[in-house]
Design brief:
Keywords: ATP-binding, Nucleotide-binding, Transport
Order of helices and strands: EEEHEEHEHHHEHEHEEHH
CATH superfamily of the largest domain: P-loop containing nucleotide triphosphate hydrolases
CATH topology of the largest domain: Rossmann fold
Shape: globular
Protein name: ABC transporter ATP-binding protein
Bound molecules: adenosine-5'-triphosphate, magnesium ion
Radius of gyration: 17 Å
Strand content: 25-35%
Oligomer: single chain
Strand order of the largest sheet: 6-7-8-3-9-10
Number of strands: 10
InterPro entries: AAA+_ATPase, ABC_AA/LPS_Transport, ABC_transporter-like_ATP-bd, BCA_ABC_TP_C, P-loop_NTPase
CATH class of the largest domain: Alpha Beta
Number of helices: 9
GO molecular function, one term: ATP binding
Pfam families: ABC_tran, BCA_ABC_TP_C
Largest sheet: 6 strands, mixed
Number of domains: 2
Length: about 240
């Protein structure tokens, strides 16, 4: 069953169509990749899905429910969580409290502290749980943001360039985490420029270019698609 379904989404900034009739489906148990050159519209699509930007046309469904008109908080109650390309952590709170704030909004609020401790362990953040996120390298800050999203126990998890700033070993561990989350039933949507990561963890990849989906398929098919190669070369 599709956990997230987007159909016919169009967003215009002035005369520029950032998204033009975009459709996307992300299934529970799968990692769905969303790739494309800079400015393709990936983050804008996440804004539409999470309710931060209203599309001029199109619909968003979570678990079959039309949430196109719901506010962001309503969408999180229906199981949606996301991270941001530009980190948006609470700098005055510790790493642990960043996760705790989210856990207390989620379905597991009664056992929020235990849930947060388990997440800190899972993400390897226990040693820095009392630090301020502002003091951390970007790669680690991104993991904290992933932790905050996971603290809401999402069914659909949108990740906007979560591995940027991670080294090779961190990225490998992160890939294993994404696979595990999918295996637990989460629908993961991954925006990422690290093609190694995308190709190794995604079940299905959507390629956006200039606001349009130009290819969809398993990683191996998409990476050899001539339209896709041309879009990336045009970007170089
Ligand atoms: N708030 C805004 N106002 C005007 N134009 C915008 C705004 N946000 C995005 N855009 C434009 O919309 C298009 C899509 O931008 P978006 O940030 O969604 O791309 P992206 O695929 O996430 O790119 P990147 O890989 O660089 O993060 C771009 O042309 C961008 O300049
Ligand atoms: Mg972006």
């Amino acid at each position: 069953m599709a956990s997230l379904q987007v159909s016919g989404v169009t967003v215009a900034f002035g005369g520029n169509r950032a998204l033009d009739g975009v459709g996307l489906t992300a299934e529970s148990g799968h990692v769905t990749g969303l790739i494309g050159p800079n400015g393709a519209g990936k983050s804008t699509l996440f804004d539409v899905v999470s309710g931060l930007r209203r599309p001029s046309s199109g619909r968003v469904f979570l678990d079959g429910r039309d949430v196109t008109r719901s506010r962001p908080a309503g969408r999180s109650r229906h199981g949606l969580a996301r991270t941001f390309q530009r980190l948006e952590l609470f700098g005055r709170l510790s790493v642990r409290d960043n996760l705790l704030v989210a856990a207390e909004l989620g379905p597991d609020r009664r056992r929020a502290a235990a849930l947060v401790d388990a997440l800190l362990t899972r993400l390897g953040l226990t040693a820095i749980a009392d630090s301020s996120p502002d003091s951390l390298p970007t790669g680690v800050g991104r993991l904290v943001e992933v932790g905050r999203a996971l603290a809401m126990r999402p069914k659909v998890l949108l990740l906007d360039e979560p591995a940027a700033g991670q080294d090779g070993e961190e990225t490998e561990r992160f890939a294993a985490l994404l696979r595990a989350l999918a295996d637990e039933g989460t629908a993961v949507v991954l925006v990422e420029h690290d093609m190694g990561l995308v190709m190794s963890v995604c079940d299905q990849v959507y390629v956006l270019d200039l606001g349009k989906v130009i290819a969809v398929g398993p990683p191996d098919l998409v990476r050899h698609d001539e339209t896709v190669l041309a879009a990336y070369l045009g970007d170089a």
